[in-house]
Amino acid sequence: MDPRFRFEPTAVPMPEATRREILAAPGFGKAFTDYMLVMRHTAQTGWAEGVVRARAPFQIDPACAVLHYAQEIFEGMKAYRTPDGGAALFRSGANARRFADSAERMAMPQVPEELFRSAVCALVEVERDWLPDIGQGSLYLRPFMFASEAFLGVRPAAEYLFVIIASPAGAYFKREAAGLSLWVSDSYIRAAPGGTGAAKCGGNYAGGLAAQAEAARAGCDQVLFLDAVERRWVEELGGMNVFFVFDDGSLATPPLSGTILPGITRDSLITLARGCGREVREEPYAIDQWRSDAQSGRLVEAFACGTAAVVASIGQVRGAGLEITISGGRPGPVAAELRAALVDIHHGRAPDPHGWFEKVS
Ligand code: PLP
Ligand code: COI
Questions:
Q1: Which residue has a Cα nearest atom 12 of ligand 1?
Q2: Where along the chain do its domains lie?
Q3: Tell me, what's the pLDDT at 330?
Q4: Deepest in the core among 61, 68, 84, 190, taking most CB within 10 A?
Q5: CB atoms within 10 A of CB 41
């Protein structure tokens, strides 16, 4: 292991039979591996030695800054099983850069890109037995950082913990094969210009939960957010970016205007689709346009994408006085084609001209 990280073996690893049972049907976010990586930052020491140790609860002071002012950021990435039984990451440098950008926005110290990637690799090496087999999922990695100083004044904290945990993951949506249903909230927005929409901070998700609950009450899988100013332009889902496919074979996706998360899957799909000769436009798309394009047949598919969800077709969009059905409510072929192309690169089964695939072990 990288000498910057100390390894403390756990006395009670998960029994192999239990691990196998979990890996056979991992679901999403419910089971966790044996270890976590922890590093501490103070203004005096900078990032001190990291430790990979048994995953366990933290003891934190009731005045811990994150509990009051939500100075917290996270990343979502995955390790994939390769055909030779090894492990690989996908564009980890992009996650490292976004983590640094989120840190800057939330007035937190940045984890240098190289340190972030080495920390992720250190945990994956230790947890390689936790990678589901190809076709059964991947190992979801959740790097996060929070303000750990006990202090109630409102200012950037003087102490932080950078932690990585891992969780074997299968499909994010239970009913994905049927096409996702989305709920357009007219009561809530996710992000406003000048706010934190482009940062991956916990507060963005807390603020979206009431809208997601509204979606669930309406029987929908996910909330679709519109822009905060005109309440008209499609932004993104609670935890995914969105793409549109038109009858001329072209694609469109909302631009990175500062209020949506710059998804790494979004960026990868733009590159893959252009590589297949498709035109991809990053342009604003209005919800009323979505309705009329679906009715006229100009819009043939829509899909959501993200690390957890990969690529998932959208079958329906509903809201107050709104009901849109896309491609008869069924998953579309372009989403399936792009998903397969991406997943093949994840597992190292396809040529990788962009250098996205990173073998770890
Ligand atoms: N948008 C939001 C709000 C997200 O939480 C995510 C997931 O991370 C995405 C988009 C997709 O980003 P990525 O493809 O980097 O996972
Ligand atoms: C991801 O796709 O990694 C996400 O963070 C989305 C969601 C699970 C929060």
A1: 263
A2: 5-169, 180-346
A3: 82
A4: 190
A5: 21
Q: What is the pLDDT of residues 204-244, one digit of tens each?
A: 999 999 999 999 999 999 999 999 999 999 999 999 999 99
Distance CA 38, CA 186 (A): 41
Rounded alpha-carbon distances, angstroms, from residue 28 to 23, 140, 244, 326: 11, 9, 26, 27
Q: How many CB atoms lie within 10 A of CB 30?
A: 10
Ligand in nearest proximity to the CA of 265:
1
| Residue found under tokens 């492990």 | 87
- Respond yes or no: is residue 78 known to be catalytic: no
Which residues, including other chains, have CB under 8 Å from residue 317's CB and lie 6 or more apart? 181, 182, 183, 184, 224, 287, 290, 302, 323, 324, 326
> Does the domain spanning 5-169 belong to CATH 3.40.50.2300?
no
CA distances from 272 to 97, 265, 336, 341 (A): 21, 10, 13, 8
Answer whether 102's CB lies under 8 Å from 76's CB: no
Q: What is the pLDDT of residues 259-288, one digit of tens each?
A: 999 999 999 999 999 999 999 999 999 999
- Looking at ligand 2, which atom is closest to the CA of residue 308? 2
Pick the CATH number of 180-346 from 2.60.120.890, 1.10.510.10, 3.20.10.10, 3.10.580.10: 3.20.10.10
Tell whether ligand 1 has an atom less than 6 A from the beta carbon of residue 212: no
The per-residue pLDDT for 176 is: 67
Is the pTM here over 0.70, yes or no? yes
Contacts (Cβ under 8 Å, ≥6 apart) of 360: 79, 86, 87, 88, 89, 121, 124, 125, 128
